[in-house]
Amino acid sequence: MTEILRDKASLRQWRRGLPETKRVGFVPTMGALHAGHVSLMHQARETADVVIASIFVNPLQFGPNEDLSRYPRPIEADIAKLEAARVDALFLPSVEDMYPPGASTLVEESLVSGPLCGALRPGHFTGVTTVVLKLFNLVQPDIAFFGQKDAQQCAVIERMVRDLDVPVEIRRGPIVREPDGLALSSRNVYLSPEDRAAAPLIYKSLLAVRTAYQGGEHDAARLAAIGLGVLAQSGRIRAQYWEVRDLDSLGAIITVGGRGALLAVAAHLGTTRLIDNLVIGGDS
């Protein structure tokens, strides 16, 4: 059975009870768990002695016109998935417990959080780094697992951990996809049947650019134009960005060099915003 810890006091008591020799793996989530989350839990189970997950829909990372109020919260189904994945404990705090009255301290990363989603969602990554550092302080994990689908989030957290000397190893889990290529996301449930049918073009645009790169096209602007051209095949997809970026800084590049690059896309289908990415070149 997965032990459910509903507040910080319970979590601290649970953590103090663990032997110092036990290696703790941590999978932070916002719930609405799918196979991508479960793959991270399996990765943690294979790596650590004790596995803890968290479910917390963090209000700090939602903008005023985003989907905080309707974000899916199927907690009973989530707990069943955690138990099936042999997760030892779940931290399930309230907003009031995580952010007590008068809380005014924020954690801001100022480089890799700037472009891509950071440019479109002001304050989003400050909300992410603030809650993740709080969770790290509470859980005190040895290793934490994040999904590559949120590549910019991974980069921001890695930079925060490096810059602030947080003693946590960050590991990325690969993107898990539907058979037609759509990256698994808790927000996929929002898609209408028509939008769901169009959504695989996002991944197809990434594959088309990878093929062009492998065929000798290394100009970043031309590669991005190819990706946008694929998305344009469906009138339902509204691209927010389609970018070719440096793997580490996420800064703009002119050509894809030997180290490779990150292909990153964000798009709307109806009212649903989806993101996806692919690494090209280097060891990919």
Radius of gyration (Å): 19 Å
Residue stretches low in confidence (pLDDT < 50, at least 5 long) are none
Main pleated-sheet profile: 6 strands, parallel
- The top level CATH class name of the largest domain: Alpha Beta
The second-level CATH architecture of the largest domain is 3-Layer(aba) Sandwich
H/E topology pattern? EHEHEHEHHHEHEHHHEEE
What is the tally of beta strands? 9
Which structural class best describes the helix and strand composition?
Answer: alpha/beta
Question: Could you tell me the mean pLDDT?
Answer: 97
Classified in CATH, the superfamily of the largest domain is HUPs
Could you tell me how far the N terminus lies from the C terminus, measured between alpha carbons in angstroms? 38 Å
Q: What's the helical proportion of residues?
A: 25-40%
Tally of separate helices: 10
Binding site for (R)-pantoate: 61, 153
Subunit structure: Homodimer.
Organism: Devosia lucknowensis
Pfam family, one: Pantoate_ligase
Can you give a write-up of this model?
Catalyzes the condensation of pantoate with beta-alanine in an ATP-dependent reaction via a pantoyl-adenylate intermediate. It catalyses: (R)-pantoate + beta-alanine + ATP = (R)-pantothenate + AMP + diphosphate + H(+). Homodimer. It comes from Devosia lucknowensis. Its EC number is 6.3.2.1. This protein is an alpha/beta fold and about 280 residues long. The chain folds into 2 domains: about 170 residues, 3-Layer(aba) Sandwich (Rossmann fold); about 100 residues, Pantoate--beta-alanine Ligase, Chain: A,domain 2 (2-Layer Sandwich), CATH 3.30.1300.10. The chain contains 10 helices and 9 strands. Helix 7 links the parallel strand 5 and strand 6. Helix 6 crosses helix 7 and helix 9 packs antiparallel against helix 10. It is globular, with a radius of gyration of 19 Å. The chain starts with a strand and ends with a strand.
